[in-house]
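Supplementary Methods S3. Complex input for the nicotinamide-adenine-dinucleotide-bound model.
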Amino acid sequence: MTSRSVIVTGGARGIGKGIAKAFLQQGDRVLIADLASAASWRYDLSTDSQMHETLAELGEFGDATSTNLDVTDFKSCQKAVATAQENYGSLDVLINNAGVIDSGLIEDFSEESWDRIFDVNVKVIYNMTRAALSHLRSSSNAAIVNTSSIAGKRGSANLSCYCSSKFAVVGLTQSLAHELAPSGIRVNAICPGIVGTAMWRDHLMASHGEEAFNSRMTRTIPLGRPQTSDDIGEAVVYLANARNVTGVALNVAGGLEMH
Ligand code: NAD
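Predicted complex, serialized as structure tokens:
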């Protein structure tokens, strides 16, 4: 396969970093695009220095560059796409991975959190796909992979907003898979299980510590461990490469979710 140009949103750390690494390891060129501005949320989002550290690490695996991006702002998305085109001369693969979480009972859940979660987790796909579409249509091997979750397959108490945003990602993925098939663009979703990133360590299990996190995951996940960013990267690269696969929402969850 010839080397492709890839954008990974939310690529400054966590799962996005693992996805970027996996593409670089197969010889693709990757633009990591992230807020990288220490934005204030229920937990800290990525910082500029995190993005630079990640870029230095990824540089060992291949041709990686970075850009600041706010996925909720269409102009910012257009700028990121233009940067990929400038850096690499094309854009073949779009990874819509940026996301945020908040939790709480529906009666206590703020409208601000509700809107922000949908703006980042769902609107990212609308904004980035529209910004990238003309470039993807020019590619002979184009793919979009959207990050959903096992929370996009099954609802949970305290997570009604996050789960419904991730269900929406699956619906959007299937719709775009139909819509873009005639253009030869494949669209799939990845559904990670439990990856010990900021979402878990700084929010969902912030008061529990490393040992409690690992022991809970060992007990509850059939294959006996939480997932790693590399596990997710491997499966995302598969979805971006597989020439006859579209509209799939693939669980990478050690058996925690099987539907
Ligand atoms: P993370 O917080 O480490 O990464 C999310 C990244 O998105 C951060 O770098 C953050 O700065 C970026 N981001 C947030 N808002 C943004 C915006 N407006 N514009 C651009 N970038 C923005 O968490 P993660 O676990 O690596 O999450 C990555 C994706 O995986 C998310 O979509 C998340 O919902 C999903 N996911 C995570 C898990 C898990 O267990 N960690 C499981 C299933 C799905």
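Residues 9-10, 12-16, 34-35, 45-46, 69-72, 97-100, 120, 147, 149, 192, 194-195, 197-200 surround nicotinamide-adenine-dinucleotide (CB under 6 Å). The chain has nine helices and seven strands.
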